[in-house]
Design a protein that fits this description.
elongated, alpha+beta, two-stranded antiparallel sheet, 4 strands, 33% helix, binds iron/sulfur cluster, 102 residues
């Protein structure tokens, strides 16, 4: 964790009102801002074939309640292993209480 990270508090909009995003390739991501194909989401398994929309019968139980998604939501609410896109869009400066970017 960098010095800047220690000053950032995450207020994840996907926990309250931001919807998951379905990519053109058929994978769900936690929100549309995550659709950058960044290394984090590949490494964490969001683009694994078992989570492809064509390979599930029940999106809620098989994708949104998968270990991949549960771990992600746990990290953004209680941990610090989340991608830079979350910091950029949902990060609040703890000192000024302002958004990191608008
Ligand atoms: S940027 Fe990250 S924390 Fe913010 S809504 Fe999207 S997935 Fe959630």
């Amino acid at each position: 964790m960098t010095e800047l990270d220690s000053k950032i508090e995450l207020k994840p909009k996907c926990v309250s009102d931001k919807e998951p995003a379905l990519t053109a390739e058929g994978f769900f991501l936690p929100c549309c801002w995550c659709d950058r194909r960044n290394k984090y989401f590949i490494e964490k398994g969001f683009l694994n074939k078992e989570l492809h929309i064509s390979n599930v019968n029940d999106i809620v139980s098989e994708i949104f309640n998968s270990q991949t998604w549960i771990k992600f939501f746990n990290e953004i609410q209680n941990g610090n292993d989340y991608p830079s896109v979350c910091k950029e869009h949902c990060g609040i400066n703890k000192i000024t209480n302002k958004k990191i970017i608008k």
